[in-house]
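Re: [help] complex structure
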Amino acid sequence: MAALAMCSSASAAESFNWWLPENISPAGEEVDRIFFVILVLTGLTFVLTEALLVYSLLRFRHKEGRKARHVHGNHWLETGWTAGTAVILLFLALYQVPAWNRLKMTRPSEDGAVLVQVLAEQFKFHFRYAGTDGEFGTADDVTQIAELHVPVDKDVILTMRSKDVIHSLFMPHLRFKQDVLPGATIESWFQAGKTTGTARSERDDQEFDYEIACAELCGNSHYTMRGILVVHDQSAFDDWLAKESSAAADYEPPEVWQHWEKSVARAVTTGEEHL
Amino acid sequence: MTHKGTVCGIVVLAVVLGSVACREPDDPAESSEAAPTVAAGDKGKPVFPKAQATASISGQAFYDGEIPTPKALRIQGDKFCEHHAADNPPKSEALLVNSDNTLRNVLVHVTKGVDQWQHAVPGEPVVVTQKNCTYVPHVFGIQVGQTLQVTSADDTTHNVHFIGTKNREFNLTQRQGQMDEKRFTRREVGTAFLKCDVHSWMKAHVGILTHPFYAVTGDGGNFDLGGLPPGEYEVEAWHETLGVQTRQVTLQDGEAAKLEFRFAAK
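Output below.
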């Protein structure tokens, strides 16, 4: 319980962070705290059960003349560990509710937020921005393959669909992971708290990028869904969006986005769920 | 038979039945066997009468409209492809119009009038190369039973994914220098294509024919379908974005028919 108490403070969670990618999301502390609480509980259970196993192996090892005794079970012992497990799971279920409510159920306002459409397909994540006119589905839409650009410290609202199978957009530095399901539109959101430039300077590594991965095995080239998250300061993001938006007409609109238009139109007629 | 023997018998039977059940009885894309000289569907038909092929069909495809400037493809997500696209990004080949308004990448082929004959399957393969993260060629024809050779010249991983409605799908991962061979079993035009799952901008269209009377237009929008016996034929021109046009042609002995396909801008 002391370990649990220690883990439940944000600073303690940070101090445990040496093995995880740096957290650059305001939501990350809560995610890490829950992660460490679960880690401590499962870690203690693991150590305890392994210790019992090793003890039993040694204590009851073969001895000449000693016969094995058949045991039908211990009612109180079984009730105890079942109830104990149930209490732990119930604790976890309740413990994470406030965090789930804050991170997943409280949609930020679109005012001032960056809206991005995400289309997952075997085997790339595609991102689309409304461009400078603020309207999706127009000629100045900015399309990106495997590169998500966002401004620092701003709400980013993702509207996500899958073209084929279940994918999962995973950005470890944001502690963000969201499944993308075919036949459903899923919204999710985040804030990135440190620019890529700052992260590169701190690491003295100009090649560093925040990573995007697919966290759901989606086929034989699943690994090629890797992408990068580029976090700009606001002015650099505005410049990037304006430049890409003005250059959008020079590029052939990626064919994959035709699927988005068709599937969204179909979703309206079939009453598909918006999650 | 002992109990042990019965169990062994069941296991052996299960393995044999399993191996039989798992075999692909008619794998259209299989290439391990020797290439056929005649497509399976042509067996029993009379051989194409070459000596009577005194007539011919050729012509041009045109684009009626302002010549479009091909747009660049969005190349991202692969360092190799990005590097090669940095200075000169590959352009979309979905609508390529020559300076004289003739149209490229039109697959012109005979749709009626030649199916009563047996046509030899060419021994030489059709070669498709993945170069600088594009397919070369972008549109091509191939005969049923003919070998398709797919190679990669790129120092990155490609994924050759064939999708059609009448031929079996196949999906190959390729590294630089790798070569794979496949063959098709059914006629299919307009619905069959190769795509790279790793590089979503890569696509090539395949016209699978049961005979050799086809061509893909290039410089000058020209096509030449070769020698045919006198008779009535239907010729189709297919373009990936502009659609399909057909022409009826009656060939007299020794006639060299000229066709013109004009595709309106969309």
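Helices of chain B lie at 3-22, 79-85.
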